[in-house]
Amino acid sequence: MSLKFDVASVLERETETTIADWYALVEAEPELVMIPLSREDRCMHLPEMFGDLVDRLRNPLPLGTHARASAAARDHGRLRRDQGYTAAMLVAESRILQVSIFQTLQLHVEDTKPSVLLIYVMSIADEVDSQLAQAMKSYITEAKLDAEPIEA
Q1: Domain residue limits at 98
Q2: pTM for the full model?
């Protein structure tokens, strides 16, 4: 079994645990819990975003390439805007997501050479950042629409 498959499989298999870890970290962030949300509302975008990430690992793109469009990321940006999040809060959520993913890998990919694992870590960071960029784009688009005058 190739490492690419192992990393993707670990993240696929550990999606729910990683989301639970992410949620616990988010709930410990005073800035983020200022917006009261249920666990379901806070986490609803994550399973699909994990699916996008696993797909990226199984079908790699060169680093820095424009990633595939993610409906989950786009919808997440719009939803968080509607829920009252600031742009900084979106970035904080994304940072916590990367930490949670890397902690999952640390726990489950024991016998892998760090130099070999590094390319997959870089791909994960690239994909999470791409999803953040897509979320921010829809967040900003919503903000611009909110600022437009209403025509009667």
Answers
A1: 3-145
A2: 0.83
